Amino acid sequence: MATLKEFEEALRENGMQMALAILERLRERDRANRVVKPGRRIVGKKMTPELARQILELHGSTEMTQQEIAFKLGVNQGRVNEVIKRGKWLSGDQAAPEAVARDKGKARIQGAEVKRPRKAAAKTGATGGAKSPKSGAAKDKAGKSPKSPATAQLAFGDL
């Protein structure tokens, strides 16, 4: 099937200026009617065991998709998937992994969580650059270090 661009090129090749003018007029009309809407962002509710049970009930009793359930209940579609596939959020336990992760995320957003200090091994690795590699072990048979890039390249005429 030909694309619109290919169709336009064929019209140009055959010198069909009237058809090109009609096509351009149709494009301008479409541009005038085009409306750009911002993406729809849904602010999700806090996941609770009751909401998780509602999700499972809707999933089991209706033919609704996960996206439709998410829109109806005002939650993220990923949360609906987690409830259906993995049974998350069904217990009211505040020590459950999903509840702990949620609380950590909220704390990080609010800036309450202190940034973690860097590991000591990472600092010593940065300052320990004065060591030189052993010359016998670091070089291969050609006498090059293993980190040097290969110099052989193919050109178009080589094939």
UniProtKB/TrEMBL annotation:
Per the UniProt record, which residue ranges are transmembrane? none
Q: Residues of the signal sequence? A: none
Biased segments, Low complexity type: 122-136
MF terms from GO for this chain are: DNA binding
Residue ranges, annotated region (Disordered): 92-159
InterPro entries, per this entry? Lambda_DNA-bd_dom_sf (IPR010982), RNA_pol_sigma_r3/r4-like (IPR013324)
Q: Which Gene3D superfamilies match?
A: lambda repressor-like DNA-binding domains
Q: What is this protein called?
A: RNA polymerase subunit sigma-70
Give the source species. Answer: Methylobacterium aquaticum
